[in-house]
Amino acid sequence: MGEILVVSGTGTEVGKTVVTAAVAACALRAGRTVAVLKPAQTGVAEGEAGDVAEVGRLVGGAVTGRELGRYPEPLAPATAAARAGLPPVSAARAAAAARELAAGHDLVLVEGAGGLLVRLDEQASTLADVAGLLDAPVLLAVAAGLGTLNTTALTAEALASRGLACRGLVVGSWPSEPGLAERCNLDDLPVVAGAPLLGVVPGGAGGFQASRFTASAPAWLAPELGGTWGRRPGG
């Protein structure tokens, strides 16, 4: 049975997908087989590329991708499913799919939608419930700038209150010209989360071609995630 790692954000637009792709790229370079599971994809119409496809593009298509539910409106999965008249994806179904993928892959990355406690269905199940059913650690993609300390601390507290392990933090989009807040946050983020900072992905990395992305990804992530990153930018 392969390793399962849940990737959550502290909110929307913090770089979950590019962090997922970077972890996948490092695993692939190490010779591991990788699957990416997206329980609920929102804000994407039929025929459009979703987050699973974007991970595949960034790593050159070398991953197995699976999407369980797709809803066109950019809303929380439970709301988007109800408005579309489509069945939601339960935590139990997501966990079962992850286990199935883990039976044939060395690493399964389960990418959430939005933050940790966004509702998946009418029973108010969340990505935290998926992680709990799988007994899997959670990797947090976090923002770099002002406000990130609060959302990171709240998410870490939610994980701890449920007995879930936080594998660490990865900054999903590091600016080319960081300000004082960003530089200070690199020290403060692991303190407020009680978990290690395991990487910093540069802003714009999601626009890279696969060859550049896969060659660069190890420099963004710490050895715990298969990379070589060991010090903060400019520090």
Automatic annotation (TrEMBL):
Free-text function comment from the UniProt entry: Catalyzes a mechanistically unusual reaction, the ATP-dependent insertion of CO2 between the N7 and N8 nitrogen atoms of 7,8-diaminopelargonic acid (DAPA, also called 7,8-diammoniononanoate) to form a ureido ring.
EC number: 6.3.3.3
Pfam families cross-referenced by the UniProt entry: AAA_26 (PF13500)
Name of the molecule in the record: ATP-dependent dethiobiotin synthetase BioD
UniProt: Mg(2+) binding residues: T17, D51, E111
Keywords: ATP-binding, Biotin biosynthesis, Cytoplasm, Ligase, Magnesium, Metal-binding, Nucleotide-binding
Catalyzed reactions: (7R,8S)-7,8-diammoniononanoate + CO2 + ATP = (4R,5S)-dethiobiotin + ADP + phosphate + 3 H(+)
Oligomeric and partner information: Homodimer.
Binding site for substrate: T42
One Gene Ontology molecular-function label: ATP binding
Localisation per UniProt entry: Cytoplasm
InterPro entries: DTB_synth_BioD, P-loop_NTPase
Organism whose genome encodes this protein: Streptomyces alkaliterrae
Stated family: Belongs to the dethiobiotin synthetase family.
Active site as annotated: K38
Entry keyword Isomerase: no
Positions annotated to bind ATP: E13, V14, G15, K16, T17, V18, D51, E111, G112, A113, G114, G172, S173
Cofactor(s) for this UniProt protein: Mg(2+)
GO biological process terms, semicolon-separated: biotin biosynthetic process
GO cellular component assignments: cytosol
Pathway(s) the chain acts in: Cofactor biosynthesis; biotin biosynthesis; biotin from 7,8-diaminononanoate: step 1/2
PANTHER family reported for this sequence: DETHIOBIOTIN SYNTHETASE
NCBIfam families for the chain: bioD
